[in-house]
Structure formats: C-alpha cells, structure tokens
Amino acid sequence: MEINKRVIIVSNRLPVKIKEQDGEMTYHTSEGGLATGLASIYKQNNNLWIGWPGAIVEDRVKTKVEEDLQQKNLLPIFLTQQEINEFYEGFSNETIWPLFHYFPTYTTYNPQYWESYKAVNQKFADAILKVASKDDVIWIHDYQLMLVPQMVRDVLPEVSIGFFQHIPFPSYEIFRILPWRKELLQGVLGADVLGFHTYDDVRHFLSATTRILNIDGMANELTIGNRKVAVDAFPISIDYKKYRQIAEDNITRRNERKLKQLINHNKLVISIDRLDYSKGIIHRLRAYELFLQKHPELRGKVTMIQLVVPSRDNVPQYKELKEEMNRMVSEINGRFSTLGWQPIQHFYRSFPIHLLSALYKAADVALVTPMRDGMNLVSKEYIASKIDQKGVLVLSETAGASRELSDAVLVNPNDIWEFSDKIYSALNMPEDEQKRRMAAMQQTVARFDIFNWVNNFMDKLAEVKAQQQAMYTRRINTSIQQKIGIRYYYGQKRLIFLDYDGTLVPFHNQVDAAIPDKDLLSILKKLSEDPHNTVVITSGRDYNTLQAWLGHLPLDMIAEHGAWYRDHGKEWRSRRDLNNEWRHEIHRVMDMYARRTPGAFIEEKSFSLAWHYRKVEEGLGSLRAHELMADIKHFVSDQGLQLLQGDKVIEIKSITVNKGKAAKRWLEKDDYDFVMAIGDDYTDEDTFKAMPDDAITIKVGNNVSAATYFMSSYAEVRALLHELYMAENIGDQLRRDAGILKEAS
Ligand code: ADQ
User: Fold this and answer.
1) Among 30, 274, 349, which is best to mutate for testing ligand 1, by the most ligand atoms less than 8 A from CB?
2) pLDDT tens-digit readout, 680-713
3) Residue partners of 166: CB distance under 8 A and separation at least 6
4) What residues are annotated to the active site?
5) 188-240, pLDDT tens digit by residue?
6) Could you give all domains of the chain from N- to C-terminal order, each with its CATH number?
C-alpha cells in the first residue's frame, strides 16, 4: 500500500451516526465491516473520509458538526430533505438498487430523480475538489456516487481514483434498460481502478462498456483516451479476528446459553438480514414452511430465529415487503405452533454484536439465501463465529459470497422445493462433514479478510498509476518531438517505415473505406520527394490496393506483411520461396465459418487469407474466430504457417513472412543515419524489433509494445510527419539565411 500519499475515502454515508440531544451533538462511530476495514486508512495522518452524516443537520449547528467531525478525520456533506428524497431514496434506491439486483419491475425511471442524482454527485465532487490535490489517492464507494469519478477527473486529470461497487453489476441486457446507462458508465470510468465483488460483475461491466460505449480492451484493461483503466474483482470480507474474539467472549457465551434454553435446546435455524426484497426473505419463509409441511416429525424440534434490521421503510416496496413478511410469519406460526413451541421467532430490529455472535454460534443452520447480493457479509460472519466448526451454511448461488464459499450448501432461492430439501439435509448433515466444510471455509475467510481486501485494492491502484506514469513518460510530447525533429534535420540518409491502417488513416469498418485523403497524400508526397528520404509503407494489405492508392508517389512499399514489395519507380515483386498449397484447405474452413456468421468475410491476398469479423454482432465474432482457430490450428502448424490474431481479424500466412524480415531488406541496403518506424498493431512489433538500437520507434495506441514511444492517434502521426518536413524546410531557410548573412558579411 502506498502510505506516503494522502488517501481520501468517499462514500454516501460517513462511518458515524449523528444525533442531537438537548442541543448537544453526539457521534456514534459505525462498527460495520467497511468502516472497520477502512479505519486503518482514514484515521491515519491527514487522511480523510467524506460523506453524508446520516441526518439532516440544521444550519445553526453545521459549523459545530464540521469541527467535531474534523477531529475524527471526517468531512460531512450536508444533504437537504429534497436531496435525500430524490437522490438517495429516489435514484439510488428506487432506480439503481432494484435494477442492479435484477428487479426491473421495481425500477422507477424519474428524470427529476436523475437530475438530483447528478446534482448531488456534483456536490460530492466539489467537496472532494476543495480539499484534494493531484497527488492524492481518492477512493470512491458505491452506486450512489457513480458520476463522481469523472467529475473529479475533469478537474484533476492526473489524480489517482479508485471506485468500488458494493452491489452487483447486472448483465448487459438488464443494464441497458436504464435510460442513463451511458452517463453512468462514463462517470465510473473516470476511475483508474474499478472494483467489483466477483468476476461475473467484472464480465458484465466489461460487456456493457464494449456494447454501450464501444470501448474495447485487452482482458480486463480498458483504454480511455490516454489512460489505462483496470477492472477487477476484489471480494470484500470481514474482520475475521474480531468476529472470533467476540465469539470467544464471556458475554457471548452467556448469551448463547440463554438462547439455547429459550428454544428448549431445539435445533436452531437462523436468518439474518436487512429488510430488503433482494434478500429473499419471502422465498426463505416459503421454503421453511414447505420443510415443516414435508417433515411433521421435526415439528416441535426445530426453531427458526429470524432477525430483520429495519431499512428504507418509507420506500413503498419495502413497506409492502414488511407487511407480506409479517403476514407470512404469523401464518406459519398460526398454522404449525403448539402450546410449547413456535416455529419462527421473529425480531424486527438491530441486535448488539454479542447477541448476534451468540446466534451465529448456537445455530445449526444459517439460511443466507438472497435473490441477489453483491457479496453478503452475514455468511462470512457466521463462518468466523463457528469456533467449534459445527454448523451448516445454506447459501444462495446468486450471492457474491457463493464464489468463494463453495463448501456451503448452495441453493437456488427460487426453487422452493429443492430449498426445503436442503434445509432438511443441512439439519441432518453428519458432524464430520460439517466440520470439514466449515474448516475449509474458515481458511478462506481468515486469509481473505477485510484488511487483505483494502490492501489488494490500494496496491492495484498504485500499480495502475505506476503503469500509467511509465506510459506517460514514453508518450511523445513537445520536447521529444523536438529531439526527433533535430535528429531528422541533421539526418542525411533517412529511412522511414510507416504502417498504413490505424497509423496514417483511422481504422474503418469498411476495409476499402480507408482510401488516402488529400491531406495524407500531400504529407507522403512531400516526405518521399525529399532526396534524403526513403519512405517505406509497410502494410498487411494486398499490393493491388496499395498500388492503386499510393502507386503514383515516389514511395517504397511492403504489401501483405512482406510477401510483396516495391522499390519506387520499379515493378512489384513477390518472394519466390513461398508456396500456396495450403490455401485451398484453409479457404474451405474459413468459408464454412463465414457462412455461419452474418457479417464475416474472407479477404484473399496472394500469400495469405484473412477472416474478418469487424461487422459481426459483438461477442459472436470472437466466439466464431476462436472456433475457427481451434479447427485449423493443427493444420497451421503442420504446414509451417502462422496464425495472426489482429483487431477483429485472423490471418493465416507463411511463418517466414513478416514485416520485420521485410524491413531488414531495406536496412541492409544502405547506411542510414536516421531510422524511424511507426505502427499501430501487433504485426508492426516485428518491424520495431528489427530496427537498429538507435532507431526511433513509435507505437500508435496504448498496448504493450517493443516501441520506444507512444502516440494516441493517426492524427498525431500526421502532425509529427508534417513537423518533420517543416523542420527540414525551416532548416533550409535557416541555412539559406545563414548563407545570405555570410555573403553579406
Ligand atoms: P448489505 O446489503 O447491508 O451490504 P451485508 O453484506 O449482508 O448486506 O451486510 C449486512 C450487515 O448487517 C452485516 O454485517 C450483519 O451482521 C449486519 N446485520 C444484519 N442484521 C442485523 C441485525 N438484526 N442486527 C445487527 N446487525 C445486523 C452491501 C451489499 C452486500 C455487500 C456489502 C459490503 O448489498 O452484498 O456484501 O454491501 O460490500
């Protein structure tokens, strides 16, 4: 973790509850998992946590509250009642929350809420910007603040920003329903590291950015302008040691004894969550009811303790849920109770941690069965509290925690029948199996605790920033450009290799649309007409196209990655040693895949075949390309061919043909004092590697490269080339002026 930088944590809620009693302000610091984990950061040095203090604060006490909280390294943002209604309860909890938890029918689309969401996000961003400098690390939390990263980035372009989302990121098909999907994505992409709980969330997020913003990336890295952004899974956890200590505490032991007496030493099933439709409370009650119905022999021998913490109960759906829950609990109790036994003990309130811990310890089975949950910490708290390792966790497969806790009894909460069977088998699981499973899960939770989570996230953020900075120093800026200009100016024999697509013209969906424009032709003409210059276009395109587009200029050209070449003023020649016997078979397979894939097509070059999928439906193209590659890979290696994977294209050619080999032919021709190569894709890497040590090599784009320098676009390449021949002209002028001056003197 980078400890020498100042860290600013930002979340909707501050880790403090504030109350006013008889004119006195009291502050109760939260014991929640996130607050505990982040306490190791925000309480240090001049670090800071920014957020809403959880209550409406009257103007007259605002300054006092600010001063009090400042002592605790907290900076409050005050929200008005209207902001709470529209930004917090509105857009955050009635729009994003239900949709991201796969409840589209509960989702409200209210433009007024959206306006408020934007305004409050701006309020948070302004508060950050008031105190932050470009060297700080800013860690923004959760779905209430998705626009803040970009708002901060706009003002502090170099600052380190992390964003962590605590709730699921839904599949693209769900996310796209949202009218403001684009803005939310652009907002979070202001961060350098985007963290989610699970790899599935990461996958969904990447698929949404590809499809909605048309941003492509390599694996889980995206390139936003000149910035690399990492998207990764950081499963949150709990303070394991703390939960173990509490479980061993005498107060907890006493509570546990009392609890067992209270339920007559029955088997105990527990259920603990916040009141929320995402938590699966109703489905769980149904499954428990069915279990009691199917197993009359266990009635009177099992008790369920259900704890529900009040939450958001002025949002209509939560009110309805509460009514439905109460109705079901009394129905089940009414139906099955006997004089000495009640199947469900229901509590609608928060419990002190020692009582919670006693429940975890006493429980034979914990039912943690949300419909959807980003992670779910109750499951991990239960595991940590099991000192004797006896007890079974029944866990939803749709909770993020299920990815780590594979030794739990996994359940689909919608499948009530199977669910009720699993309650039964959990209650009857042999003790040694309980212990084996519990031990394995304890190992995981102990190792990947909340502190590990904080460290992993902060380390990743530092790593990404360092990578960005390394890239930044290799980006061509004015001073590097000047140095290149000087070397160019003094060069007497210059050799310049230029790739075509993506380097001199933008990447087009239509292969033939990349025809050179007037501006480009003029640049190439001026460069190549200079008698000191040899300009070589090195392209993967077929030679007929290059001839038609650029043949009239005094350029040298390499076509089809080196299978064909032309010295200016001469005819095109091909390599004599290449054979084409493999062609028929590869063409047959490529054609089979093209016929199954709308939008795919084959490009025929004289010594290679390319299968393009740039016009194929997103996702399907790369799926087919992988199938195709798997199909031909043995043939390719048997025949001494090479399979190249490009940007939405795969190409098969002889292994002996590459741009680097072709470039060598030119390098060997003469002794050059200025060598430069510019290219944008993987095939240009061969050129870069073939260049002498003192050559200037430039990669267009941000991917890893053997090139020394980076540029972001074809437009910058053109500007550089323009500068170079201008340098020559200005130089000539200077030389002439110098001559005139000499003569005059
Ligand atoms: P939550 O939806 O709040 O968090 P969860 O992770 O389960 O869900 O945390 C609930 C917390 O409340 C636990 O620490 C639990 O002990 C406590 N709690 C529950 N009932 C209680 C009661 N009656 N009395 C006292 N305490 C009680 C969101 C996401 C989750 C994600 C977390 C953290 O929805 O998926 O795991 O953030 O990222």
Assistant:
1) 274
2) 988 899 999 999 999 999 999 877 788 999 998 9
3) 34, 141, 142, 143, 197, 236, 374, 375
4) 499
5) 999 999 999 999 999 999 999 999 998 877 778 998 887 889 999 999 999 99
6) 7-233 (3.40.50.2000), 240-447 (3.40.50.2000), 475-578+659-731 (3.40.50.1000), 585-654 (3.30.70.1020)
